[in-house]
## 1
Amino acid sequence: MKIFFKLCTLVLASFLLFTSIPVAVSAAYPGTQEPAYAKWGRLAVFETGKRYPDYDIVDYLYVGRTLAQNGENIERFKLWIRKGTSEKGVFVTITLTPNRVFKSISFQETDR
């Protein structure tokens, strides 16, 4: 009888011990894909860095994709850049052919 109680106590203690230990779950699941705009976002950041070499890029926002009447895809991003105490926003517009091949890039500064 004593062996039965010891065994039950051991099983219960083990269960309580191992169920209270947090298990880390990786958010970077290997099967996840990056968003379709990620390739163009990297291009927007890279080209903005070239155009404004004295500024640091401090924020990034994907504004969205629109389809032009001629079938071209337009990807828009807003980057916030800083140089010392001076800050400004830059809208980056990337135009793609209907086959999603790069066509052009444009920049428009904004104070907001």
## 2
Amino acid sequence: MDTLHTEISQLIIDTLDLEDMSAADIDPAAPLFGDGLGLDSIDALELGVALRKRYQVRLDGDDPSVKRYFQSV
């Protein structure tokens, strides 16, 4: 897993309090929602805020491509 994937995986773990997981447990190609990591819409909002704070990116919830950004790490 490259550095950015590890950072994003750790951000997910820290933001969503997934204490029983490590960055290595999150497959970068696995879906974040549904049968993958099992995140829900509230998790997506929390993760979006964390990404904005950490990487200074702003995601427009009305942009249909945003869903694609949250499919996997």
